[in-house]
Write a structure and sequence with these properties.
- InterPro entries: CK2_alpha, Kinase-like_dom_sf, Prot_kinase_dom, Protein_kinase_ATP_BS, Ser/Thr_kinase_AS.
- This is Casein kinase II subunit alpha.
- One of its GO terms (cellular component) is cytosol.
- The strands form five sheets. The chain has a five-stranded antiparallel sheet with strand order 2-3-4-6-5, sandwiched between helices. Strands 1-13 form a two-stranded antiparallel ribbon. Strands 7-8 form a two-stranded antiparallel ribbon.
- The protein is 37% helix and 14% strand.
- It contains 17 helices and 13 strands.
- It is α+β, with helices and mostly antiparallel strands.
- A hairpin with a 4-residue loop joins strand 7 and strand 8.
- Helix 11 packs antiparallel against helix 15.
- The longest helix is centred in the N-terminal third of the chain and has 16 residues.
Length: 411
C-alpha cells in the first residue's frame, strides 16, 4: 500500500479514530483544572476525579523576584548564532514526495503523532513515518528546525524527508529506521556493562571525524543550544543486536535563550524535574539530566518508573520521600519560590532515604558503588548542581566502557 493512498481502510480507519480522539477527547492533563464544573467531577473515574478536584484547590507556586536562573553551560549559544538558526517560525519547509513512501505497519502512537514502519519504494530502504496530528504550525516548524540543526549529530535520530498529504495537508516526518526492542522487554535483560554502555551512548556517541573529539547525544544537543525536554526510555531507541542507540522524538524540544521563561507542561510525568513541578520557568538543559537520572535509577534498581507519582502533585511527593524535604526547602528558598499552602501540606515532611535502601538481591550486581555515586550526581533538586552531560561522561562509572573503546580504536 502506498503512503499516498490515505483512503485505504487499512491506513485511514485507525488514523480517523486517532484524530477523532485527539480532537474530541483531550487527555485530562491538557484540561484547565478550573474549567471542570463540580457536577462533572462525579462523572470522571475516581482517580481522575480526585486529581481534578485537587488541581482545582491547589494554586501555582509563587516566584518572588531577585533569583534568576541561568544555564551553567552553553548559555549563550543561541545569542551567538544567526537568527535563522533559532527563529524556527520563519522556516520555509521544503516538502518531499509523499508517494515515495509506503506504509508497512503501525509501530506506535503518542499525544501528537502516530508512527509507522515504512519503506522507500525506489530503493526499498526501511524508514519510520511519523504522521503528525493537528497541532499549531509553530510546533511543527520547531521540531523540523531542531532536527535540521542537529543533523549529523551523534546518536541523534536522522530526519530523512518531510512530506504532506496533498488533500488534507497532514504533514509527516520520515526518519531512519531503528530495529528497536521495547525497553520493558530489553531493560530487565541488560547486564551491568550493557547499562554502562547504553547510558554512555546516550551521553557519548562515536568519534567525530569533523572535530576529532568525543561527542554525545545530550551534550551535543545542549552544545547546539537545544533542550530535549522529553528524555525517557520510550524516546531512546536501542537496536541491541547492532548495539546502536538513537535519541528520538524532538517534538517537545526547544532552543535555550538565557532568561526566557518556558512552559512547565513538558516531559512525561515520571521524568519531570522538580523545577517543572514547582513552576520554575527559567529552567535549562539540566532538566534533561534529571530525566536521564530517573531513567538510570530505574535501570540499576530494576524499578521502572523510579518515581511513580499518580499525578504531578504526587510526583513531587514521591521525589520528596527519597531526596527529603529539607533539600526541597533549600531549593525553593534559593530561587524565591513559595508552594501553595495546600501543596506544601500535601508534600509533608520527609527525611532523605539512603540510596542503599533501594538495593536488593535482584539488583545488587547493577547498583554498584560507582553507579550509586553517578545517580546521586544527577538526581538533585537544584538543577544547577546536577552534572552537565560532559561532566557525566567523565564519571568513573564509565571507565570500563572508555577502556573497551580505547582498545577498539587501537586495534
Amino acid at each position: 500500500m502506498t503512503f499516498g493512498s490515505l483512503r485505504s481502510s487499512r491506513f485511514l480507519l485507525p488514523r480517523r479514530l486517532a484524530i477523532q480522539s485527539f480532537l474530541h477527547l483531550p487527555a485530562l492533563s491538557t484540561l484547565v483544572p478550573s474549567s471542570i464544573p463540580d457536577p462533572l467531577l462525579g462523572l470522571l473515574p475516581r482517580p481522575f476525579a480526585a486529581a481534578a478536584a485537587m488541581a482545582q484547590k491547589i494554586g501555582k507556586s509563587v516566584r518572588r523576584p531577585g533569583a534568576p536562573s541561568l544555564a551553567r553551560v552553553y548559555a549563550d549559544v543561541n545569542v551567538q548564532r544567526p537568527k535563522d538558526y533559532w527563529d524556527y517560525e520563519s522556516l520555509t519547509v521544503q516538502w518531499g514526495e509523499q508517494d515515495d513512501y509506503e506504509v508497512v505497519r503501525k509501530v506506535g502512537r503518542g499525544k501528537y503523532s502516530e508512527v509507522f514502519e515504512g519503506v522507500h519504494i525506489t530503493n526499498n530502504e526501511k524508514c519510520i513515518i511519523k504522521i503528525l496530528k493537528p497541532v499549531k504550525k509553530k510546533k511543527i516548524k520547531r521540531e523540523i528546525k531542531i532536527l535540521q540543526n542537529l543533523c549529523g549529530g551523534p546518536n541523534i535520530i536522522k530526519l530523512l524527508d518531510i512530506v504532506r498529504d496533498q488533500q488534507s495537508k497532514t504533514p509527516s516526518l520520515i526518519f531512519e529506521y531503528v530495529n528497536n526492542t521495547d525497553f520493558k522487554v530489553l531493560y530487565p535483560t541488560l547486564s551491568d556493562y550493557d547499562i554502562r554502555y547504553y547510558i554512555y551512548e546516550l551521553l557519548k556517541a562515536s568519534l567525530s571525524f569533523c572535530f576529532t573529539e568525543l561527542n554525545d547525544a545530550l551534550d551535543y544537543c545542549h552544545s547546539q543550544g537545544i533542550m530535549h525536554r522529553d528524555v525517557k526510555p520510550h524516546n531512546v531507541m536501542i537496536d541491541h543486536q547492532q548495539r546502536k542507540l538513537r535519541l528520538i522524538d524532538w517534538g517537545l524540544a526547544e532552543l535555550y535563550h538565557p532568561g526566557q521563561e518556558y512552559n512547565v507542561r513538558v516531559a512525561s510525568r515520571y521524568f519531570k524535574g522538580p523545577e517543572l513541578l514547582v513552576d520554575l520557568q527559567d529552567y535549562d538543559y539540566s532538566l534533561d539530566m534529571w530525566s536521564l537520572g530517573c531513567m538510570f535509577a530505574g535501570m540499576i534498581f530494576r524499578k521502572e518508573p523510579f518515581f511513580y507519582g499518580h499525578d504531578n502533585y504526587d510526583q513531587l511527593v514521591k521525589i520528596a520521600k527519597v531526596l527529603g524535604t529539607d533539600g526541597l526547602t533549600v531549593y525553593l528558598n534559593k530561587y524565591h519560590l513559595e508552594l501553595d499552602p495546600q501543596f506544601e501540606a500535601l508534600v509533608g515532611r520527609h527525611s532523605r532515604k539512603p540510596w542503599a535502601k533501594f538495593i536488593n538481591p535482584d539488583n545488587q550486581h547493577l547498583a554498584v558503588p560507582e553507579a550509586i555515586d553517578f545517580v546521586d550526581k544527577l538526581l538533585k533538586y537544584d538543577h544547577q548542581e546536577r552534572f552537565t552531560a560532559k561532566e557525566a561522561m567523565d564519571h568513573p562509572y564509565f571507565n570500563p566502557v572508555r577502556s573497551a573503546e580505547s582498545s577498539r580504536i587501537r586495534t
